[in-house]
Design brief:
Length: 387
């Protein structure tokens, strides 16, 4: 079995006004992703996703160029089932042979940012293909699930205080027993974020897990003030209270807070997560597999979580492919405790392909089907492909 083609297409899906939301990223009027396909000589196809931005909207042209001009030549003619070696070829480039011989990474200059994101898309497609070639799911290929269910959380929470009960009520009525809301710069002041978090807790009651996400927009003093004021709300975690590039600041917030701290959605490699752990800056690791090197790197990050007695809650604000990959990782890792389910306008999750999002008392069951169990609707792809 050999790779015949590696292709990428930027999908740009405009959102109708009633599906848009406003946060510190501004008004989100579109959902974007880069769909990666790897095809074998026998016609088997694997699908992956690379994310052009941590938020919903972003220009995917650079990722398409990297996949097709830099990564594709390294993979053509190779066996797609050798996923580990393929990752090394993409990540280490011309020094891949030295890296294999010594057991040490010798990465290309673009070991962070767009190159790693592009690698993530190809890596996910290769895992999808490798499992399909063996007639099983990726989860089965990894040894099967570590648990029967994983708790799903509804990821939204943009409304103001008067509107929060209705917004969060829609999520709980849909069966969610855990909800995440946004705070931080979009509120302008810490006291407003605290008021919204308190309103959310009052609306949800004590039996629904509540998390908050500041998107890294508070400074250290603001984050400390928020965590102190929110301590009585019993938050399940506070996500990215400060920019995770500020490792010292994040560690300072964690040391001062009685609430668990989560981070990692914009990190690019297991080395980033290792540094967060070394700085004692985090309680919950949140790799986005369409950013942080794909499932190959995700498995290394999950191992770090387990070895350091931390929780794993993969970030999955993307298409059905990223969602199923995150779901797979959460079930495959003993540390996996949550799977994020995007709310609001998420057409790449809910319209691009049919996947099972049924909740069972707020939980998800393991993914089913071959590979990641995602078969993109080709008419949808043609309709929203942007050139």
């Amino acid at each position: 079995m050999k790779i015949r083609a590696v292709d990428a297409v930027w999908l740009h899906v405009p959102l109708p006004e009633d599906k848009q939301h406003v946060s510190d990223f501004g008004r989100i009027a579109a959902f974007d992703a880069v769909l990666v396909t790897v095809t074998t000589e026998c016609g088997l196809v694997g699908y992956g996703e690379a994310k052009p931005a941590v938020g919903s909207a972003g220009d995917g042209r650079a990722l398409v160029a990297i996949v097709e001009n830099e990564l594709r030549p390294r993979l053509l003619g190779r066996d797609p089932r050798d996923v580990g070696r393929a990752f090394g070829l993409m990540y280490n480039g011309s020094r891949a042979g030295h890296a294999e011989r010594t057991g040490r990474a010798m990465p290309i200059l673009g070991r962070r940012g767009a190159h790693t994101v592009a690698i993530a898309g190809v890596d996910l497609a290769l895992w999808d293909l490798a499992a399909k070639a063996r007639g099983c799911s990726v989860l089965e290929l990894l040894g099967g699930p570590c648990r029967e269910r994983v708790r799903a959380y509804a990821s939204g929470g943009w409304a103001d205080v008067p509107g929060l009960p209705a917004e969060l009520g829609r999520y709980t009525q849909a069966g969610f027993r855990a909800v995440k809301m946004r705070v931080g710069a979009m509120d302008g002041r810490v006291d407003k974020s605290l008021a919204r978090a308190a309103a959310a807790r009052a609306a949800l009651g004590p039996d629904v897990d509540l998390m908050v996400d500041a998107h890294g927009t508070m400074n250290v003093a603001e984050a400390k003030r928020f965590c102190a004021g929110a301590a009585e709300l019993g938050l399940r975690f506070v996500e990215e209270p400060v920019n995770s590039d500020d490792r010292h600041g994040l560690a300072e917030v964690r040391a001062a807070s009685a609430l668990p701290i989560a981070a990692g959605e914009s990190e690019a490699a297991a080395f980033d997560f290792a540094e967060l752990i070394e700085r004692r800056a985090v309680d919950v690791l949140q790799p986005d597999l369409a950013i942080a090197g794909g499932l190959s790197e995700g498995l290394r990050i999950a191992a770090l979580a387990y070895a350091n007695r931390l929780e794993l809650a993969p970030h999955s604000w993307g298409s059905a492919i990223t969602f199923q990959a995150a779901r797979t990782l959460a079930f495959a890792s003993p540390a996996g405790v949550f799977v994020e389910v995007p709310m609001g306008g998420a057409p790449l999750l809910r319209e691009m392909a049919a996947i099972d999002l049924t909740l069972h008392d707020g939980d998800l069951l393991p993914p089913t089907g071959l590979g990641f169990g995602v078969a993109p609707d080709q008419e949808f792809v043609r309709r929203f492909a942007k050139h």
